[in-house]
Design a protein that fits this description.
The protein is an alpha+beta fold. The chain is built from nine helices and 14 strands. The structure holds (3R)-3-hydroxy-3-methyl-5-(phosphonooxy)pentanoic acid (PMV).
């Protein structure tokens, strides 16, 4: 036994977790303190866009870390992970006595323009918390704690820990909500929302010109920041009610308005920047026209990038996919789009050794 961290001297093994990306409906944009949100946010947990991370560990006389992404060294990501772990050595003192070998890969193509920090950071934290669980002799991982550490690694990652839908950030409209961690909304929503599909139209797969981190900090001097945070809080209240009642009209109105506000905030930052592309707008216009003509409850949202997520209940999948293939793939780079849907949250993969 290592007395300081209670590690058996032969402690070694491998843990492996798959964790999904998520798409925010009410957006987190602007932070304070230690990665705390300026306003609450709500997201769908996705299914097909995910990261798989394997972490092997062996007792060692000091902490060491080796990281590979998709079979290759990735010094930038390795440095980010190492910093995160060293920052939390007091929470996981056993890290001082382990050498870690981490390999990670994404289910979505390399250059798809899909942000991977939510899936990758939640998968990483799940591996860490799993080792912590073993050392504490517990049977289950504490999801609240996982969400809390995932939040510190990357804000939106806090929501990926839960199936179907999650809410992160304190709101009076939800008693157990917190700025520190996300909570599950799985049992607070009308069943229609569990059938939702997300078609991700890849307008551009180029790296973003302004990172999310820089975008969050530009909110500090954004002249519309206070109005935005107040509006986001009102949107959370209305969206929670719409989710409970199965009110698709309100759901669509808030979801689209949130995407537009996010991008408007970027345009009003100093310096101003634009992440939408002409084809993002072409898709938005076509979706609005299609909805008016067909009354199919199809709506869009955007992340901090040019790609457009189309959200719709499963029962409309046939019509929407025909619409995408006939009218929207022309706006996608190399006709690329990804079929995703609401998912069941992270999954532990048993490793045979
Ligand atoms: O988690 P971050 O720091 O990458 O920020 C995510 C920001 C948005 O994706 C634009 C909104 C959100 O709530 O996910």
């Amino acid at each position: 036994m290592n007395c300081q961290a209670n590690i058996p001297s032969d402690f070694h093994g491998t843990v492996k977790w798959q964790s999904p990306s998520n798409i925010a409906l009410v957006k987190y944009w602007g932070k304070k303190g230690v990665q705390l949100p300026q306003n609450p946010s709500i997201s769908f947990t996705l299914s097909n866009c995910r990261t798989e991370t394997e972490m092997s560990f062996d007792v060692s006389d000091h902490f060491s870390l080796h990281f590979q992404f998709e079979g290759k060294e990735n010094p930038a990501f390795a440095a980010k992970i190492e910093k995160f772990m060293l920052d939390h050595i007091a929470d996981f003192p056993w890290l001082n006595h382990l050498s870690l070998n981490i390999s990670s890969s994404n289910s979505f193509p390399h250059s798809s323009g899909i942000a991977s920090s939510a899936s990758s950071m939640s998968a990483l934290v799940l591996c860490l918390l799993d080792i912590d669980r073993m050392l504490q002799g517990k049977t289950d991982i504490d999801l609240q704690k996982t969400s809390c550490f995932a939040r510190i690694a990357s804000g939106s990652a806090s929501r990926s820990v839960f199936p179907v839908m999650a809410l992160w950030g304190k709101t009076n409209a939800f008693a157990t909500s917190s700025d520190e961690y996300a909570v599950s909304l799985e049992n607070q929503i009308n069943p229609i929302f569990k059938t939702y599909r997300d078609a991700i139209l890849i307008v551009s797969d180029a790296a973003k010109s302004v990172s999310s981190r820089a975008g969050h900090s530009l909110m500090e001097n954004n002249p519309y920041a206070a109005a935005r945070y107040a509006q986001a809080n009102r949107n959370i209240e209305s969206l929670l009610a719409a989710l409970r009642d199965g009110d698709l009209e309100t759901f669509m109105q808030i979801t689209e308005s949130e995407a537009m506000q996010l991008h408007a905030l970027m345009m009003c930052s100093n310096p101003s920047y634009i992440l939408m592309r002409p084809n993002s707008l072409n898709i938005i216009n076509a979706v609005r026209q299609y909805r008016e003509e067909t009354h199919v409850p199809l709506c869009f949202t955007l992340d901090a990038g040019p790609n457009v997520h189309l959200l719709y209940p499963e029962q409309y999948a046939g019509s929407v996919e025909t619409f995408i293939n006939e009218s929207l793939v022309r706006y996608c780079t190399d006709s690329k789009w990804i079929k995703d849907c609401v998912g069941n949250g992270p999954k532990k993969i048993e490793v045979e050794r």
